[in-house]
Specification:
heterodimer; A: mainly alpha; Helix Hairpins; 4 helices; B: two-stranded antiparallel sheet
């Protein structure tokens, strides 16, 4: 009973840590890792739920749910990374056109729409409010 | 035998998605056929639920705790009918919209995946199955929204994807808590076992917050306007009309069928109502200030979602009986009306954008003369968004205001009437710009294939759901007739 409780509480703690990081940190990669940690927290809780205190074999249903959840999390992460690489391509194109003399002046448009500027190391940043 | 037909609205679009990937040359024709089949199966399930009884099937020959259950009652049948009809209209529109564009190759498979998961959410009877369908929905919706490939669209949909993931993982944590407490995921079994405990209360909060994030309930709506305004027109229509509704449908389902009355109490309902009121006021105000037609439509969605949440305190405060049934049916009617109206509005806005090359409201002069049918669609859909008679939302707002009087919660009346006035202001702002100085055109329809779906959807929101709202009551199994 205590072991299952400890595992479950650890799962909730992981979820809370991931949630905090997802909300606070701007770089997209950190957000994605945070989301995966949140997912791990929930899976942790499911595994703890599957434990049976009388020593018999664990409940298989939560195990199946965790497997499905992992597949979902992996595909979601892949899609987010794909969208992110599209963003980086667009930014690279924009910055190369900015350096050419005929290029349109870009900085004003980014400032007006409030889009976060790509940082120098190429990592995209994403802020929650979308002015 | 009839119950097995519940599989079709989910299986047919999945099959369609596979077929259009396998045979890309036949894409528009295959897409149209698969869309027709999906709509037919969805309407068939609705008709069976209406004429006979609630349907239910457990897949794979496994018993209930293990097997995956599908079920259709009046509530799911009503939303299924909406997704079928709006989906068909959008599909026909998309044939013309994407003609000759290579984006067509990406649109059809993703759209059928989205449609399968929409129907899946409406038919699933199991909390985990719902989670999988919600995730499939979120992934395909974000991919569809980014279809234009512009930087703004990709960024908006990346944010939409992350918000959707956050919402569904929060929902999943609630599901895990419920499984820990009661050992089942089937909604029917769970509602028998569930007790008003702190565990169930925690699960209720997590699930409703996660879903409200996906439903763009104020103040968690920040992701919606850029994502919906930057998507291609058919995608915007589906996102605003259907995808947002799935999360609302699920909150309503949990509220009515799963959680005991001690948990879905007055305080919880009041919180939802206040957030809904904020959405009505803020969404309508931002729609009024929007410079672009599609952004206006997106903010209007935020406001209309708010009205749906205003029903919760009224439903909670009304004792079981005809008055409460009326409120629930009016809530569903409001959601359906918005589904048709907003789909028609976005499709028509897409035509304006294609023809004019932009959708700035200030520069829409002459649209009424050059595209009369499209402008008429916007006006029809707009009258349903305002809630003018005879649209479905007129009846819904009437019942809602009557409910607010009877429950003694007069403050919601101020919100409803302010929101309605603001809606009238933003719709008439578009229409007043659309009538320019050009000579009157020769013909009403300028591009029949694309204009007729928008026109029909807008028409359905006014005439079908307004003049013939009675079937919604009988579909939900209620006696009372609208006042």
């Amino acid at each position: 009973m205590t072991a299952a409780f400890l595992y479950g509480a650890a799962g909730l703690l992981l979820f809370a840590l991931g949630l905090w990081s997802l909300l606070v940190h701007e770089p997209l990669l950190r957000k994605l890792i945070a989301f995966n940690i949140m997912g791990s927290g929930v899976f942790h809780l499911f595994i703890a739920v599957a434990h049976r205190s009388d020593g018999s074999s664990p409940d298989p249903v939560p195990h199946a749910l965790v497997l499905t959840g992992i597949v979902v999390a992996v595909s979601a992460t892949a899609l987010a990374l794909a969208l992110n690489s599209r963003l980086e391509e667009a930014d690279a194109k924009a910055s190369s056109s900015k350096t050419t003399p005929s290029g349109a002046p870009e900085p004003n448009t980014t400032a007006r729409t409030g889009l976060p500027k790509p940082s120098s190391n190429g990592a995209n940043r994403l802020r929650w409010p979308s002015r | 035998m009839i119950s097995n037909s519940l599989v079709l609205p989910i299986a047919l679009p999945l099959l369609g998605a596979l077929l259009v990937v396998a045979l890309p040359r036949k894409m528009p024709i295959l897409g149209a056929l698969a869309a027709l089949a999906t709509t037919g199966s969805g309407l068939w399930v609705t008709a069976q639920t209406w004429l006979q009884a609630d349907l239910g099937v457990v897949l794979g020959g496994w018993g209930l705790p293990l097997g995956i259950g599908l079920a259709a009652d009046g509530l799911s049948a009503a939303f299924l009918a909406m997704s079928s009809l709006v989906g068909l209209g959008t599909s026909i529109y998309a044939i013309g919209y994407f003609a000759g564009s290579e984006r067509c190759n990406h649109f059809w498979p993703l759209w059928f995946l989205l449609w399968a998961s929409l129907n899946g959410v409406f038919l699933a009877a199991d909390l985990f199955n719902l989670y999988v369908m919600l995730e499939l929905l979120g992934l395909s919706a974000a991919a569809l929204g980014a279809l234009t490939g512009s930087r703004a669209a990709v960024e908006a949909n990346l944010r939409y994807l992350l918000v959707g993931l956050l919402g569904s993982i929060t929902y999943l944590l609630g599901v895990a808590l419920l499984y820990a407490g009661y050992g089942t995921l089937d909604i029917g079994l769970l509602s028998e076992r569930i007790q008003p405990s702190p565990l169930a209360a925690g699960a209720l909060v997590l699930m409703v917050v996660g879903l409200a994030l996906k439903a763009a309930l104020f103040p968690m709506h920040f992701w919606l306007p850029p994502a919906h305004a930057n998507a291609p027109a058919p995608v915007s229509a589906v996102l605003s009309a259907l995808v947002v509704k799935t999360a609302f449908y699920l909150i309503l389902r949990l509220w009515l069928d799963l959680f005991p009355a001690e948990l879905s109490n007055a305080a919880a309902a009041f919180v939802l109502g206040v957030l809904g009121a904020g959405a009505v006021l803020w969404g309508s105000w931002r729609a009024l200030r929007a410079e672009r037609l599609k952004l206006l439509a997106a903010y209007s969605t935020v406001a209309q979602i708010g009205y749906l949440f205003l029903f919760f305190p009224l439903i909670q405060a009304t004792p079981a009986g005809i008055a409460r049934d009326d409120l629930i049916a009016a809530c569903v009617l409001m959601a359906l009306t918005h589904g048709f109206a907003k789909a028609g509005f976005f499709l028509a806005a897409g035509l304006v954008q294609q023809k004019a090359g932009h959708d700035r409201i200030d520069a829409l002069g002459g649209t009424a003369q050059s595209m009369p049918a499209t402008t008429f669609s916007i006006a029809l859909a707009g009258s349903a968004l305002i809630g003018l008679p005879p649209s479905g939302s007129f009846i819904a707002k009437w019942v809602m205001m009557r409910g607010a009087f009877e429950a003694g919660q007069w403050w919601w009346l101020i919100i409803i009437s302010t929101g309605t006035l603001l809606a009238a202001a933003y719709i008439f702002r578009v229409l007043s710009r659309a009538f320019g100085q050009e000579p009157t055109p020769q013909c009403f329809l300028t591009d029949a294939r694309a204009e007729i779906p928008a026109l029909l959807l807008a028409f359905a929101s006014v005439a079908l759901l307004g003049l013939a709202a009675g079937p919604v009551w009988s579909l939900l199994g209620f006696q009372g007739a609208p006042a």
